[in-house]
């Protein structure tokens, strides 16, 4: 493998590790680590779209949204599938499917509210910095399942 291919493989491995670290911080509810995953000094250009939310712009607004999610989620786990990484220069594009298992605040007498599964397709854009690859943008969109579509269709009797 020539030097250029070796560097590209190393870059891809670093981006994949940064992507994984972002989701692991969210799973742990570690807001400080999650904040460290995002591009610093880009208060105006950082953006995030959570499924069903409007576009959030600016590092502060994005990080506040994660604090709100963490405060209202007792348990969350991500199983990433279909991970694909494309790179050009100092920018990397990661697409993946987030298979999410989450639980809300506990109901009376229970340690955890009911667990809910959700599928989200996500696009994460990373930029290379002196401190490694940092998130510039995250966009998550819900995946409609066949049962969701069936609910919308009335079958003639």
From TrEMBL:
Q: What InterPro entries has UniProt attached to this entry? A: NTF2-like_dom_sf, SnoaL-like
Per UniProt, residues of the SnoaL-like domain are: 15-143
Alphabetized Gene3D superfamilies for the sequence: 3.10.450.50
Against Pfam families, the record matches this protein to: SnoaL_3
Q: Where is this region: Disordered?
A: 138-157
Q: Where is the composition biased (Acidic residues)?
A: 146-157
- The entry's protein name is Nuclear transport factor 2 family protein
- Species source reads Streptomyces durocortorensis
């Amino acid at each position: 493998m020539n030097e250029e291919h070796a560097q590209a493989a190393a870059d891809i491995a670093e981006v994949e590790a940064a992507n994984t670290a972002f989701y692991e911080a969210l799973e742990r509810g570690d807001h400080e680590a999650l904040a460290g995953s995002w591009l610093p000094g880009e208060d105006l250009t950082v953006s995030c779209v959570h499924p069903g939310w409007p576009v959030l712009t600016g590092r502060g607004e994005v990080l506040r949204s994660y604090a709100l999610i963490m405060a209202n989620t007792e348990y969350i786990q991500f199983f990433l599938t279909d991970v694909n990484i494309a790179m050009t220069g100092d920018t990397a594009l990661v697409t993946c499917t987030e298979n999410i298992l989450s639980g809300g605040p506990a109901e009376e007498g229970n340690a955890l509210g009911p667990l809910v599964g959700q599928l989200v397709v996500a696009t994460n854009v990373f930029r290379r910095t002196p401190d490694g690859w940092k998130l510039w943008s995250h966009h998550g969109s819900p995946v409609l399942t066949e049962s969701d579509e069936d609910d919308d269709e009335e079958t003639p009797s």
